[in-house]
Write a structure and sequence with these properties.
This protein is an alpha/beta fold and 421 residues long. The chain has three domains: 5-146, Aminopeptidase, CATH 3.40.630; 155-369, Spore Coat Polysaccharide Biosynthesis Protein SpsA, Chain A (Alpha-Beta Complex), CATH 3.90.550; 371-421. Helices cover 33% and strands 25% of the residues. Strands 8, 9, 10, 11, 12, 13, 14, 15, 16 and 17 form a ten-stranded mixed beta sheet that branches. The N and C termini lie far apart (88 Å).
């Protein structure tokens, strides 16, 4: 027996007002502390589609959704509320489902909403309903559901960028030149660039709206301690595989993705595939060189990854499901690409294709930055300690040896700064 009745646009103004008064303190902060509930109720009734849940004659759940932009077909959910006594009974889930169906019936392309960063329950509900993070403003995440998005993507290209106006065209063009027999998507996260990078990304989005899906932040998230890829990029990736490339690097082989995906498809026990990378200094300050020079084998295990860093971000293609779930400690580290390699190595072997298929630009504006040896080594030590615990101390001996080398590097740097006069 269905205890609840679900309707659309049935509630009267007084029903909405009574419901919001009952739910006011469930909001953070309380709803009546920042809006006039009578005025807000009237606005909802006059302008929004109301998706409702009833028990007898009581309005127990309400979604207010604005589906009146016939130009862009972008919808906005401004209220999701369920009376306390009816929470945990699947009401909110059903209301969101009905809202999505109504938006699709009206031929809308997207649904947008805001949610408090600390409201983990709501974020989880929206994610399970097809929403993904699309930015952050202050204490709220912006989330979006691309209702008409194609779901047959095979590989997701994830690119993070910040103030890369001189390079981002080369990067995006290198994605678009890929020749594959499978569909791709290009997920770009711009972290509130101030140099015109976002405008270039918008230009490409307009030309390739079905492929290029940007998040253009208004506030820098890295400075707030957010881990960009795991918070904004990977959760919205539709592909079976993920390829990485930062906004100041670029790919050089039009068959790069095809080669790497073919390799992983033929070797399902592998978790990651990488290739050689040409390192080029900005303004040709120094001669270019091979990032993987000296590698003498084609298959690598966890032990190899612990010992040294030899896989560049722009060369990585990996099986998405073998990365998940991402442990909580990952959000507290700074060497994200190396951390990914360690996690993936724990899920399968790593394959190497000895071909130069991308370029790593060495510049003062690189996202990897010019960290001092001391700072970088301290961050690596922290990461390795987390990973040691994550793997139940299986690699303690190797990790201790690596940490010892890193500490020696810190001491050498310190000694260089001392002047004995």
């Amino acid at each position: 027996m269905n205890l609840f009745n679900y309707t659309i646009n049935h509630a009267k103004n007084e029903d909405i007002e009574k419901h919001l008064l009952q739910c006011s303190k469930l909001f953070s902060p309380a709803l009546d502390t920042y809006v006039s509930i009578p005025d807000y109720s009237k606005k909802i009734r006059e302008n929004a589609v109301t998706v409702e849940a009833w028990h007898s004659d009581e309005l127990i759940g309400l979604v207010a959704c604005y589906l009146n932009n016939d130009r862009t077909h972008e919808g906005y959910i401004t209220n999701v509320s369920v009376i306390h006594d009816y929470q945990g009974k699947g009401v909110a889930k059903k209301l969101i489902k009905n809202t999505i169906e109504e938006a699709l019936n009206k031929k809308f392309k997207t649904l947008n909403l805001e949610v408090e960063v600390n409201n983990k329950w709501a974020i989880g509900l929206y994610r399970r309903s097809g929403f993904v993070l699309n930015g952050r403003l202050g204490s709220k995440y912006l989330m979006i559901n691309r209702l008409l998005e194609k779901k047959d993507v095979f590989i997701s290209i994830c690119c993070v960028t910040y103030n890369h106006v001189k390079y981002i065209r080369d990067t995006i063009e290198s994605f678009l030149m890929q020749k594959t027999d499978f569909p791709i998507e290009i997920l770009i996260h711009d972290d509130a660039s101030t140099d015109g990078t976002a405008e270039i990304i918008k230009e490409y989005e307009e030309k390739h709206p079905d492929i290029i899906k940007p998040i253009l932040q208004e506030e820098n998230q890295y400075s707030k301690g957010e881990t960009i890829s795991t918070t904004y990029q990977f959760p919205r990736a539709l592909g079976k595989y993920i390829a990485l490339c930062e906004g100041d690097d670029y790919w050089t082989d039009p068959f790069k993705l095809q080669k790497q995906v073919d390799f992983l498809e033929m070797n399902p026990d592998y978790s990651l595939c990488f290739h050689d990378v040409l390192v080029k200094w900005e303004k040709n300050k120094y001669p270019a060189y091979s990032f993987c020079k000296g590698l003498t084998k084609s298959v690598f295990q966890t032990e190899d990854i612990i010992k040294e860093y030899f896989i560049h971000t722009s060369s990585m293609v990996f099986y998405k499901d073998k990365l998940l779930p991402i442990p909580e400690w990952f959000c507290n580290i700074y060497n994200g690409d190396y951390g990914l390699q360690l996690l993936l190595a724990n899920k399968g072997e790593i394959g190497y294709i000895p071909c130069l298929m991308s370029v790593y630009r060495r510049s003062s504006n690189s996202l990897s930055g010019n960290y001092s040896v001391t700072r970088n080594n301290l961050n690596l030590i922290r990461l390795l300690k987390h990973y040691n615990k994550h793997t139940n101390f299986k690699y303690t001996k190797l990790i201790r040896e690596r940490i010892s080398i890193l500490i020696k590097g810190i001491i050498i740097q310190f000694m260089k700064k001392i002047s004995f006069k």
